[in-house]
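I have been asked to look over a protein record a colleague put together. Thanks in advance; the entry in question is below.
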Amino acid sequence: MAKFAIALCLLVAVTGIQGTDLSSMLESGTSTATSANTTLTTMYTSIMSDVDSVSAIDTTSTISSALAEVVSTSSSSLTNDAYANCLEMTAAYINGLDVIESYSANDTSTAATDCCISYANSTTTDFNTAVTYFTTFFQTMQEMTQTALSCSTNACMAAVGTNITGNTASSFSAAMDAADDLIDICDDLSSQLETCTADNS
């Protein structure tokens, strides 16, 4: 129930932002990004706490390589990679909103306003999509690590590792790809807005 509530809160948070009032859109986008980041950080912290607990009960250190790869506290684990990319994406999105705000303040023409609204809408949609993928990934990780905590045999641990690999692969890839795409867009927003304005002049 708690996990469902978190997902519902995120869903509510990332919807209803789009529109035509640029100032409100930018303010809501920043607030939503901060809220989503806080929620995903809480999920990540919970997962890593579970990882420590799993390591403590796996006295013979025979957790499968798949489980170790995904929930390891090393910098190469999927969980850490996803969280790092999530933070980078959120920062890029918030910075992108700042770029849009600055551009709209410097150019108040109809063409510029229309372009800023268009990019505010599209980047928000992309951000919402990525957050959904990250949420799915972290929720699956929480379920798997909780299952591992209930294991009493190494065979059980190995099975959890296999399940994690299979159940998180698609959401992990989707989240990372969506985040990378959004980061690239936000990093190049200034030139994109200039092109967009020129096309609409």
Notes: Residues 110-149 form the longest helix (40 residues). Residues 4-18 have pLDDT under 50 and may be disordered. Residues 110 and 169 are 44 Å apart (CA to CA). Residues 27-54+76-199 form one domain.
